[in-house]
Amino acid sequence: MSYSYPIDETYWSKEEIIDVVNFYSMVEQAYESGVKQDELLLAYTRFKQIVPSKSEEKQLCSQFEKESGYSCYRTVNQAKSAASGEKISMK
C-alpha cells in the first residue's frame, strides 16, 4: 500500500478515525481477498454515522478511489444487493 487514507484529523476523534480506516480497509479486502457482506455493511453504517453528509462521503470516497483504485460506491452497492453473510469479492 503506497497511498494514504483520506481522513479528517481536525474534526474526527481517534475512535472515529479508526472506524473510517476500518471501512476503507474492508473495501480494500473486497478487492484483494473478499470480505463478508454483513461486516462490510456494518463498517459502512459506522462510516455513515461519522460522515452523514452525502457530498462529504462522495468527496472522501472519490479521493480514496483516486489514491487506491478501489471504489467504495461499487463495493457497498454490491454488498447491499448480496445475500446476508455472502462473501463480497470485487476481483
From TrEMBL:
Which Pfam families does the UniProt record give?
A: UPF0223
Task: Classify the source by domain of life.
Answer: Bacteria
Report the InterPro entries cross-referenced here.
BH2638-like_sf (IPR023324), UPF0223 (IPR007920)
Q: Which SUPFAM superfamilies does the protein's record reference?
A: BH2638-like
Q: What is this protein called?
A: UPF0223 family protein
Q: Which organism is it from?
A: Halobacillus amylolyticus
